[in-house]
Amino acid sequence: MRASEAQKILRVILCFEVDYTSYATSVNDFCVADLQLPNTPSGYPCKSETNVTADDFVFSGFVPGSTILDPFNVTLTTAFVTSLPGLNRLGFSAAKGDFGINGTVPMHFHPDATELLIIVESQLTAGFITPAKVYLKIVKHGDIVVFPKGLLHFLVNTGVGKAVIFAALSSTNPTMQILDYLLFGNDLSTSIIANTTLLEVSQIMKLKAQFDGRG
Question: Cα–Cα distance between 8 and 185 in angstroms, integer?
Fold first, then answer.
């Protein structure tokens, strides 16, 4: 290759690197959610940087939450993008569970998130279910558990006193589908439930009364 051709190629590479560096440094490292605008498949639109504050990156409410799972004796606190806008488009969020004595997070699944669970206090029985097997383990303070996305899982406080867990989920705004509410908390007819689950009608009616079901 002649020296003049090599110099031309080198100039092109250097120009590309300069252009790329300028582009990279001009792109924001974050996209704080503008919660006044609709959510999209890729996340909320970005708030104008002039309106971004430190509070957009801080969540100060990790105390026993107001979301109470009746009758399961558990309260949940969530730090999702709707309460922590700085999470927008980062692909993760957090939650905290405070269990009363014998408290339970009932069978549920997250269709859009894997869950990483950290046991902070006491002892729990944790498990998830596949078509072929149940994976069950007694976990204690300092243990970490993974619940794969889309699989039914549950937690039961089997220790002495209260229990506390923290969780990280692989979505900024994950959904939680609780089996009891799916079956007994809506207008799915009693006869359909009886035919498809083989439960006694009297038990179905009792559960519907518990979860405000109809039909």
Answer: 70
